[in-house]
Design the sequence.
């Protein structure tokens, strides 16, 4: 019998009203990790009601007191880091080294958001009238719906939930059905840290049956989503219709630019890490490498060598360097893209097939894949693949490389390997992405800087960093007139 997990609503662990469940499978070997409620609109409605009730007291709890719970949760996560990372590797596949990083990012976010409890600065400003005071303060919006992806099953929910909570909102959280157990751990940890009942509610389920009712529920005032462009666009459309605030973090088509004066050894190692880390399933993953024609063959050869040397296997095995793709459906999508690339004239230099030798046959493993002779207009150079596939494109100059980088529908992360400081600054200015790295790959954003992208990657919001409260607060302007007279602004003083 596999373990039966539940929803967490109003401080109680409960099954879906319908009693339906879905199974959580380990992508490395098909092991059944437990059953989870396959929730629907009725469970979402219960969770939203609990969140609305809890918000009345939570909003009035002093922010530094709310923050103390986050400081405690940071310490609890740190104490259980290894167990949490193992659970994450089991359910979504990436190697333990990386899930440890994922959990660390949650710890970092806990302390960063907790610090806001004693900041959350407003703005005071002089009034234009005598004996009148003016200031503006951040206020919580209400109930926040959080919907996240499976590739960072711990860190990304914390980017949303911790700032929302410290600001005085309550939350209904629907984790991805590919990584539901990490949602359970987060709810348990917050409860142990002292979060009152109903402040965080957890509803498991699928996008159409649980995510969509959460977005549509009139009691949810803000929606924060990380996931695909197709789903994000549908959510944005629904939120526009309902007049809700929505913060979207969606796809990427991130590129690493390599100029002819770069350290090619460093660049190749960074490309392999950015392209094949998390099995290429990061929104920040490098899926394009745009190389100066003088060093193109050299860089491609080095990256192909790195790709061929990567050891595939169960992410819990310390020898493993790349885990499985999250499920067979995603693997088939990735493989279809390789076929599309080949059909468009790209050369499959290495990989391009499922890995099935020995124990790998039980999981959804795909060989690290390098496509060369990719041209900017090809679909494999324009569309997000979300797997261990990287395409090499040629450039004639830094301007040419920047222009190729910018000509995609996405703008999350980019990077340039270059020796010349002038060209480094030119790239920092002209690369049209929310994050730019110099002599570093495209992954590894730190929590205390804003995270997000331009163009199709998002809708202008930035998560974490000093921007973390923007999605989850409104500004309230306060005027106090202590003149004892009727003072008419714009009139009496002009
Ligand atoms: C994601 O892929 O959704 O910058 C998040 C990075 C990580 C976060 C990735 N810190 O690669």
Sequence:
């Amino acid at each position: 019998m596999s373990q039966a997990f539940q929803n967490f609503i109003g401080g109680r662990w409960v099954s879906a009203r319908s009693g339906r469940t879905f199974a959580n499978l380990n992508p490395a070997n098909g092991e059944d990790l437990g059953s989870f409620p396959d929730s629907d609109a009725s469970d979402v409605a219960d969770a939203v009601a609990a969140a609305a009730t809890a918000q009345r007291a939570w909003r009035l709890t002093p922010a530094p007191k709310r923050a103390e719970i986050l400081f405690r949760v940071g310490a609890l996560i740190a104490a259980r880091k290894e167990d949490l990372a193992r659970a994450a590797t089991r359910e979504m596949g990436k190697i333990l080294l990386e899930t440890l990083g994922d959990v660390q990012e949650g710890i970092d976010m806990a302390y960063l958001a907790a610090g806001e409890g004693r900041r959350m600065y407003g703005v005071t400003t002089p009034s234009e009238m005598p004996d009148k005071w003016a200031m503006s303060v951040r206020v919580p919006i209400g109930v926040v719906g959080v919907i996240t992806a499976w590739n960072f099953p711990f860190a990304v929910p914390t980017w949303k939930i911790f700032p929302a909570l410290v600001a005085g909102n309550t939350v209904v959280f629907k984790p991805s059905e590919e990584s539901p157990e990490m949602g359970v751990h987060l709810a348990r940890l917050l409860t142990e840290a002292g979060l009152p009942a109903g402040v965080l509610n957890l509803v498991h389920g699928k996008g159409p049956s649980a995510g969509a009712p959460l977005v549509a529920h009139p009691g949810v005032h803000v929606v924060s989503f990380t996931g695909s462009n197709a789903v994000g666009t549908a959510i944005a459309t629904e939120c526009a219709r309902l007049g809700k605030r929505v913060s979207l973090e969606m796809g990427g088509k991130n590129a690493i630019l390599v100029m002819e004066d770069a350290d090619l050894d460093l660049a190749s190692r960074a490309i392999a890490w950015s392209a094949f880390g998390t099995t290429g399933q990061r929104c920040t993953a490098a899926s394009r490498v745009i190389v100066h024609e003088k060093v193109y063959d050299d860089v491609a050869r080095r990256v192909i060598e790195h790709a061929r040397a990567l050891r595939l296997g169960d992410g819990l095995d310390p020898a493993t360097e790349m885990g499985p793709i999250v499920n067979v459906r995603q693997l088939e999508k990735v493989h279809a893209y390789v076929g599309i690339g080949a059909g468009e004239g790209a050369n499959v230099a290495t990989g391009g097939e499922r890995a099935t030798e020995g124990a790998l046959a039980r999981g959804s493993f795909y060989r690290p894949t390098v496509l060369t002779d990719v041209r900017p207009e090809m679909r494999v150079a324009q569309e997000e693949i979300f797997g261990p596939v990287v395409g090499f494109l040629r450039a004639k100059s830094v301007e040419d490389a920047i222009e190729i980088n910018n000509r995609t529908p996405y703008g999350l992360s980019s990077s340039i390997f270059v020796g010349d400081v002038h060209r480094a600054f030119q790239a920092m200015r002209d690369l049209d992405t929310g994050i730019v790295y110099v002599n570093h790959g495209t992954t590894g954003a730190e929590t205390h800087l804003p995270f997000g992208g331009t163009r199709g990657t998002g809708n202008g919001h930035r998560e974490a960093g000093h921007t973390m409260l923007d999605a989850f607060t409104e500004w309230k302007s306060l005027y106090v007139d202590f003149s004892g007279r009727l003072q008419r602004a714009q009139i009496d003083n002009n």
Summary: The longest helix spans residues 96-116. The mean pLDDT is 98. The pocket of 2-aminohexanedioic acid is lined by residues 105, 151-152, 156, 226, 282-284, 443-445 (CB under 6 Å).
